[in-house]
Design brief:
By secondary structure, this protein is an alpha+beta fold. The chain has 7 helices and 10 strands. Strand 4 and strand 5 form a beta hairpin.
């Protein structure tokens, strides 16, 4: 619950929720008639099928908006798992509010918004808990599988100078980027929530094999970058592609066109 959430940073990665959750809702309502929903909405005069289609459309619209907001925030805010679970509960809460509003306006069986609100909360949470729980478990399994197939967390990234002397051993997950600087490379890394630099007398070529084996990728002839620290890729007014990092104190990194596709696919 207190571990960091790891999902795709793009809006495209959230499309599964926008499609699967509403699809489950309408299918579950038609096939199983949970909690007597068909009889309840049949009283509206338009048939429960019409009402379920409208409610599904409302749910899809809500998720399209909330997931757009989530994907935008996730690029800037380090979400924890409990933050994400609260977010999911919030989406269902918003849907329940709109379901109650819809039932008040178009359902003649009961009058008054607050008279149907508690019933709609029961419908929304007891039905949608299944697809949300399924998708969360899939994400947890996917992340665990990534951890198992990745390099061991205790495998340190070791940097040697031009005379093959060990100068720095560091967790590869803490390395932000590496920059060429004449006969040196500048290694920027996180240390207790602070960005630090280490100047190493070595060439980019001499460290390339080591750093790429630990997850860093070349984005420019003078730069390697850790995709985990890339907030977004943007293009400036001169047409140059830049990788903006999560740490504001670290300058944006140029991205060559030949490396753009490889890096963008990792974000």
């Amino acid at each position: 619950m207190t571990s960091k959430l790891r999902v795709g940073k793009t809006y495209r990665s959230q499309l599964l929720y926008i499609v699967l959750v509403p699809a489950f809702f309408i299918g579950f309502c038609f096939l199983y008639n949970p909690f007597g929903m068909q009889e309840y909405f049949q009283a509206g005069g338009l048939g429960y099928g019409f009402h379920f289609v409208m409610l599904t459309t409302i749910l899809m619209a809500i998720l399209a908006i909330t997931r757009l907001i989530f994907s935008a925030l996730y690029k800037h805010i380090p979400f924890l798992w409990w933050h994400y679970i609260v977010w999911c509960f919030g989406e269902v809460f918003i849907f329940a509010l709109f379901m109650a509003l819809y039932a008040t306006l178009f359902h003649s069986g009961e009058a008054g918004y607050f008279a149907v609100l508690s019933r709609c909360f029961s419908y929304a949470y007891l039905i949608l808990v299944y697809p949300y729980l399924f998708l969360i478990l899939v994400r947890i399994i996917f992340n665990k599988n990534q951890d198992l197939t990745a390099e061991p967390s205790d495998a340190l990234l070791k940097f040697y100078d031009e005379h093959k002397r060990l100068k720095l051993s560091i967790d590869p997950a803490a390395v932000i980027c590496i920059q060429a600087d004449a006969n040196y490379v500048i290694i920027r890394y996180m240390d207790a929530e602070r960005v630090k630099e280490f100047l190493l007398r070595a060439s980019m070529k001499s460290v390339e094999n080591t750093v790429t084996q630990h997850g860093l990728v070349r984005c420019h002839r003078s730069y390697f970058v850790n995709p985990r620290f890339v907030k977004l890729l943007s293009r400036n007014k001169d047409g140059m592609i830049l990788a903006e990092l999560l740490q504001a104190e670290v300058p944006s990194i140029p991205v060559s066109k030949q490396f753009y596709k490889q890096l963008s696919e990792l974000l």
